[in-house]
Amino acid sequence: MCAGERWFALLLSLALGCGEDSVPVGSTAPSMSPSALDGAALSARAPDAGVLVCPGQGCSVLAMDPELSATDLFRQRVVLHGDSSVDPRLRGDTHCASLGPDVAYDLDLRAARAPVQVYLGLHASFDSSLRIERGPEEDPFVVACNEDHVPGLDDAFLSVTLPPERYRVIADGEQPGDGGPFELTVEVPSRNGLCREAPPNDRCEQATPVDLSAGPQVFVGTTACSSDQADPPWECGEFTRRGGEVFYALDLTDRSTPVLLHASTDVEPKGANTTLFIVRDAGVCAETLFCNRDASAELVSSELWARLEPGRYLLAVEGYYGDSVDFGLQVALDPESCDVSNDTCATAQEIAPNLGHQSFTTWPMCGDDTLYTSCSALTPSPDIFYRLDLSQFPGLVHVRVATERAGTSFENLVLMADAGETCGSAIWCGDFDLWLEPKKYYLALDGFRDQQGPVQLSVDIDTAGAPPAKPCIDESLAQCARKQNCCLGDSSECWLVYLSCGLAPEALDCLCTADPACCDGLGNSFECGRLLQGCGTFCPGFDPGLSCSE
Questions:
Q1: CA-to-CA distance for 407 and 423, rounded, in angstroms?
Q2: What are the Cα distances from residue 18, in Å, to 46, 62, 223, 463, 465?
Q3: CA geometry: angle at 469 spanning 465 and 474, to 5°?
Q4: Is the preceding omega at residue 140 within 30 degrees of 0, hence cis?
Q5: Are 430 and 444 in contact (CB under 8 A)?
Q6: Are the CB atoms for 525 and 518 separated by under 8 Å?
Q7: pLDDT digits (tens, 9 = 90+) for 219-278
Q8: What is the spatial distance between Cα 45 and Cα 265, in angstroms, rounded to a whole number?
Q9: What CA–CA distance (Å, rounded) separates 154 from 191?
Q10: 306-340 burial, b if ≥16 CB within 10 A, otherwise e?
């Protein structure tokens, strides 16, 4: 099979064996430096199988001992180096964006007893492409293909489950000029999760280096058989079962200013529930600084943003609930600056009091911790401030403020009153849709450690259809307040809802005198509804107990 042919054979009798860790493809093929795939994957392997060199130009065969396939104890991994510019062969496939010179490998899975999960990674300095074929070369059937592992990177990656048949793996380039040295990794996770030894980056002192100066980096790794060394439960806000983790080293000692790090497991092989956290590197694992895990049951990937001062850090990956996981990891320095100026009330960014829609992208995690309100009991929590001056309007102003972070509302938006060119008491927590008096207000985005990354802040202002002022609470005003659970007025934030629904401010004077906590920010009074009735704020003949009952 080998003589005179340009493509080579990699024979895998699945379920255990793993031969030589790196097999050069052809005597003239230069070796590339180890890719990100190389440092993050499990290195345990079975006893070496024979490497057979057959005649013909640049042909190597790696044969794995079929006698080892019965027990399936160890993760298997093979790395091959090749050069598609040597004796180039062009056999393009426009569907897979693979028009460059290619090299083909024979992947024989017929010895397997069941479908086999296979990871294929192609690392190159050109825009690479991977595909899997079966059938005759002259008229192949494309099983799977991928020209981009991650947008903006040259690497390609495939995670596929293949029936026990014979296939060709094609290392290719996207365009005719895309060719040259490459590194192909073929990895087969163990079906029963066992392995001989821990991953090479299991310990803090053995962390895989990340070269952030080279742009975004992508890794494929596993936590199978790793040990539990770091201790992030408090920072993660999660005290469930712990598992092992693996580490990636971030050396930022050459930086002169803070940087914004972005890490994500939303790259193949994805789908595992993961937790990401940053540990200070003191030669050993030091304290955990940041943490983020899967945001919801629907989102099976983690995303972490971290503002890091110059220094040494470790990025750790752990399976959620202690599960062993295989994962893809992308690490990059985000081009956005984390140097913000509106992280105090005194330096709050102005929101123009204009009718219509305005939108802002803000980074709460980049602020200082200068605010503590009853909206959140979690501290420390960095915050960002905006100022909204509505004093130019003659009457009530309809303001709708919405936030969005990672597909959901930002938890800790705070609306505050003005206290003379500084922030006053908090009067609302979270997104809101209210008619506000023509005064000055402040908005704060007060985020805890796991509320990272950019937040989209949307502000809509209008004055059409303002509710008519009423001297007391009647049926229609109570039903308006019902929409925000304030029909009876029991909660201490209901005074703002009543004003938004059209109650005249002076109608609350008696309530505010009887218990200032019912009218001054977010107090702790639970007597506001009873006091409203005693003050006569409900209109004569209106029975709140009857109208507000479910």
A1: 29
A2: 5, 10, 19, 72, 73
A3: 105
A4: no
A5: no
A6: yes
A7: 888 888 888 877 765 556 555 667 788 999 999 998 888 888 889 888 888 878 888 889
A8: 26
A9: 30
A10: bbbeeebbbbbbbbbeeebbbbbbbbbbeeeebeb
Residue 424 near residue 418 (C-beta atoms within 8 A): yes
The dihedral of CA 147, 148, 149, 153: what is its sign? positive
The 303-308 sheet, strands edge to edge: 217-222, 326-333, 259-264, 303-308
Answer whether residue 458 shows pLDDT above 90: yes
Distance CA 247, CA 318 (A): 9
Residue with token string 């599960």:
323
Name every residue whose Cβ is closer than 8 Å to that of residue 235 and which is 6 or more positions away in sequence.
277, 288, 289, 290, 291, 449
């602020």: which residue's tokens?
Answer: 367
545's tokens: 């107990």
Segments in 35-78 forming alpha helices (H): 36-40
Strands 217-222 and 326-333: antiparallel
Specify the residue for token string 């690479």: 128
Residue position matching structure tokens 């006053």:
424
- Stretch (H or E) spanning 134: strand 128-134
Cα–Cα distance for residue pair 545/536, rounded to 1 Å: 14
- For tokens 């200013």, name the residue: 257
Identity of residue 264? S
Q: How far apart are CA 550 and CA 545, in angstroms?
A: 10
On whether the CB atoms of residues 293 and 276 are closer than 8 A, the answer is yes
Q: What separation in angstroms does the CA of 468 have from each of 327, 456, 499, 502, 530?
A: 58, 33, 11, 6, 25
Q: The pTM is what?
A: 0.63
| One-letter amino acid for residue 547 of the chain | S
pLDDT of the residue at 240: 62
